[in-house]
Write a structure and sequence with these properties.
The relative contact order is 0.20. By secondary structure, this protein is mainly beta. The chain has one domain. Helices cover 0% and strands 30% of the residues. It has no helices and six strands. The chain has a two-stranded antiparallel ribbon with strand order 1-2. It has a two-stranded antiparallel ribbon with strand order 3-4. Strands 5-6 form a two-stranded antiparallel sheet.
């Protein structure tokens, strides 16, 4: 493939269509359980907890360079 035929990498805030996530845009992971618990990162453990306003361990974002989901904390 020629370099000019390659797709440009999405920029911050744009949708990464291959992954279905927006680049570096904060989001929460919420269960479909009746209680609607949030995924929370505590150290290296993932927990299900009630939503807590301002708790950075419940906020995640998609890192385009590593193609991983990371925590704000």
């Amino acid at each position: 493939m020629y370099a000019d035929a390659m797709k440009a990498d999405p920029k911050k805030g744009e949708l990464a269509k291959d992954f279905g996530l927006y680049i570096e845009r904060p989001f929460h992971i919420i269960t479909e359980m009746e209680s609607g618990r949030y995924l929370d990162l505590e150290g290296k453990n993932l927990l299900l907890r009630r939503p807590t306003y301002g708790l950075k361990s419940q906020v995640f974002w998609f890192d385009w360079k590593s193609r991983t989901i990371r925590s704000e904390e």
